[in-house]
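ok so i was messing around last nite and threw this chain in just to see what happens. nothing serious, just curious
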Amino acid sequence: MKLAEILGQERATTHLRQSMQQDRLAHGLIFSGPLGVGKRSTALALARALFCTQNPNEGCDGCEDCHLVEAGTHPNLLIQDMARAREEKSTASQISIAQIRRLRSDLALQGVRGRRKVAILEPAEKLTADAQNALLKTLEEPPAGCVLILVSNNADALLPTIRSRCQRVLFSPLTPSDIANILERRGSSTAEAESIAAIAGGSLQEAERLSSEESQEQSLHIRSRLDELPGLPLTDVLDFAAELASGKGEERRDRMTLQGTIFLDWARSRMKEAADVGDPERTRASLQILKRIHGTTRDLNHYANAQLTWESLLLDLRQMRG
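result:
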């Protein structure tokens, strides 16, 4: 993908292209913004633009350097991320100082294909404090022709010394229209793409997850149980809460994020239906349900006891709709 093909981030890509054209591109960049809005794709597109021999500062579809970046095999493109961390240690949850030391050694070597080198670290907030401190010397005295790109969903979590030595490039949430266009290109129907884009929160990654067959099945199941909630026996309500709270670690956090999205979309749909038929009492009740669900998603994000939190919500919804 070339910089010109990045959707929804015109401000960021325009800044990068102008910086290259004026030979003023910073050696240290922080790509900062929400998850799933194109930061990594833009980092790879920037590497392509820097390496391209046929269309410098833009990238092309023909030269070998661009093909190597596309394939992920360009020898001057160095990536350190969680996938590499877990290749070394399957339980790794951070990017280690050993990875940064190796990166520094690689950057110090002469480039295989020209003098330009690009290093991408993602997600940068996963670097340990020691790893960030090890990176400082490279940011202070970068090898000639090197560009370091720190891709971050939470740039404020980086050490102040790291932030002060990099230029921050801001990325915005994608518009529902941009997300729907991408999903349609990938084979979704217009109605499905628009429906998913409306609840994806500006994140293509979230939209991709919502459009998966597994997520669609989970959405239908949760919506069905919520519609049945007023008539469910107490034991079934508690079983439903246990089902929602199941899983461990990252998998459970990802599932709960999806579940929260489904709950919120269900509540918004109920509120819209009430407003469409001109039922103010039902609209007010639906608004209270929506607020209650918002509170639950916030509590879950702050590591509340998942099962108790879901039980409390479901029992409240059962009463509010009873």
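not much to say yet. Residues 3-170 form a domain with the Rossmann fold fold (CATH 3.40.50.300).
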